[in-house]
Structures are given as structure tokens and as C-alpha cells.
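Subject line: Sequence and fold of a protein, written as C-alpha cells
Enclosed: The protein record, placed directly beneath this head.
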Amino acid sequence: MNIALIAHDRKKDEMVNFIIAYETVFENHILYATGTTGTRIMDVTKLSIHRFMSGPLGGDQQIGAMVATNEMDLIIFLRDPLMAQPHEPDITALLRLCDVQGIPCATNIATAEILVKALERGDFAWRELVHKYKPGEL
């Protein structure tokens, strides 16, 4: 599965610790991340991560493009709800695309853990059907 990892500045440590805790789950998937988040994770794990640009510089939009073309299966986006973000329209657009495409998106650590536990159990097999068939073929 293709999994995107995004974390606002004050959530990066939380993301890194979360990925360390579930490294054995994530090592079986293709990982993408925005710039600094990806670097921080790769510095402390053995995971290979395709890094996009930093979120404010277009990384959120790059991930959004994958969501729009149904190339992303799961997003963990640890947002900081108490800090205004200069690229808030990009964040809103990404979350809207997840809703439109039916892509699971965790925006806090509790939901991220539920999704990763489901991933670990194999509960996302339905995403394989989405990749296999074109719209209207099911």
C-alpha cells in the first residue's frame, strides 16, 4: 500500500515516535512523506521514504495529486489544530480530496493507531480492488 506521512512542526516528534513504534508494519509498504517529516523518520529508522517538498512549499499538493489519481491508500497527517498554518488552503484541499476519493486519513495519533492496527490485520484489502478495477467496473 502507498502511505503518506505528514506532520506539522509541533507534531513531528510524535510522528517519529509513532513510526518507530510501528516500524515493522510500515516496512512492508511504500512510504511517502513531506520533506522534513520524511527526513526525520529516515534518520531514526531503516525505512525508505519517497520525500516530497515541504508542506508549505507544495508537498501537501504533491500528495494531493496522488490522492486525486487514486494512487494513495492511507494518509497519516498529524495536524497541529492550535497553530495557524500559512498553507491552510492546501491542507483543506488535501483533506477534501481524501473525502472525495474515500482515502482513510488520520489527523491525530489516536486515529492513526486505529488505522495502523487495521493495516497490520490486513483490513485494507478492499484498496486492492480499487486499484484493480476502473470506476464503474465493479
About this structure: The longest strand covers residues 2-7.
